[in-house]
Amino acid sequence: MNKYKFKPKSRFKELIGEKLIAIASLSALAVILLIFIFIFKESIPILTSPEVQSEAGLNKMILKQQFYPGHQPKWSWQPNSDVPKYSLVPLFIGTLKAAVIAIIFAAPLGIAAALYSSEFASKRIREVIKPVIELLAGIPSVVLGFFALIVLASAIQKIFGLTYRLNAVNAGIALGIAIIPIVFTLAEDAMTSVPKSLREAALALGANQWQVSFTMILPAALPGIAAGVILGFGRAIGETMIVLMASGNAAIISYSVADSIRTLSATIAAELAEVVFGSAHYNVLFFIGSLLFVFTFIVNLGGELIMVRLKEKLQGKTR
Amino acid sequence: MKKIAVLLITIMAFVVAQAGNITMKGSDTMVQLGQRWAEEYMKSHKDVTIQVAGGGSGTGIAALINGSTDICQASRDMKPQEYNNAETKGIKPYRVAVALDGIAVFVHELNPVKELTLEQLKAIYTGSITNWKDVGGPDHVIVLYGRENNSGTYAYFKEHVLKNEDYYEATQTLPGTAAVVNAVGKDKYGIGYGGLAWAKRVKFIAIKNDDKSAAVLPSIKTVTDGSYPIARDLYWFFNGTPTGALKDLLNWALSPEGQKLAEAADYIPLPAEMAAKSVIK
Known about the structure:
The structure holds two protein chains of two kinds. By secondary structure, chain A is mostly helical.
């Protein structure tokens, strides 16, 4: 028996182990990079090929187009038409409507739950609330989508007396349920990591629990809360299955939340399976994919940066 | 070396075992039909395994072109561009109609509207009629439901009912005919369309060719005799003329026994002489 149980047998083996781990972590990075390169590559013809541009150039995706003589120019997404129409504007509006409703629904709930859990709840209650809300993140989005399609849509239609059963509110609330855990987890982490010394100082000055929570904890944790809201927004933009099932998928220009919507992500999911390989429609779908990738990347980066700032602030580092 | 040899033998054994394995992919409308046929065929042919998958006609055609399926089930013909793609990949599509399908138009059970002309149906789905009162119903906005554009039903309806005009943008597109039936079943002012086999728990609309002709409800009888106006062929596509197990399966599906099964699964059998003509000698 060797006396030193953990004495390395060979420096060489250790080195190999270390390299293997390094490769594993770098491969994750490489995969992300490869995905981006592939998606981007497939959307390049939109910028370079005149043939594709004549059907779906950038201007056709953004500006109003007159498709038939004598008709009003309009934004329209009808890729399978005799005159294919590739305006992304209705899809942008749909995506934003769903994501904004989701965040309006999820942010107050998530933040309030976080505040309760971190400041007011007894230890026993907290030990129930926290894992249960975090468990919500584990519900497959297709299940949430199905729930929204069958149950939530009927309830919302009945309560508000809406014309369309599947609409932006329905999709937004279902999305909101999916992002509550993100807002909650990050906000709660930020609140609990406010240093005890700050809390104790406030209590020593005679503040009651409400005053501590609202005038001290909330402002101190604000960057973490903001990060949660931003990351939740990013998830809502990219989430696919829920909106595909719950939104009605009608690509219309409307600012009413009671109308159906079609989002960028759902459009890819619904149409990519059919699209003729190498066609303009195919390139446009990949272009939408690139847009979503870049957009969620920026949003997530913003969220992460705020988190870093928060940590520095709470550790007392100043810039 | 020994390990590699074992691995190779395993792989080869796997490939040999796959010889009696037929994959079938495509139209969601036809999944039930394919499954019914596959089950019955496998009962009498123990050496053959048939895998049936949906995904939409377009998905099936793409799979045929990529060589990843033996049989493509499609509720529409291939588009010219798809024929071109097949050609460049060295695939020679062989098309056989294996059953018929009527596209039913349906509304909520409580909707008083009983019949529509093709003209009215087109006006409704292109957005020139938007209120039920214009076609004899209640004064309420018509809520349109349809299929996603990867569906053969979508393409067929657009071509034959909308005369290739665009769907009204407010049409809510849902994944799968089952979802459309479900949505219309829950929406008092909804209207939807889909394969006859799927449409249950909603009220069928009788269709008139024009103002003067008689209104016809979709049924096996009216589709087979051609009096129901919105009907189509359901196809199998092969790569080249099928031989061996594929040929045997096709001929069996076209046989009276196979066609009877199609009818039992709520699809519409081919007229006998049409089926007999498609059998491969």
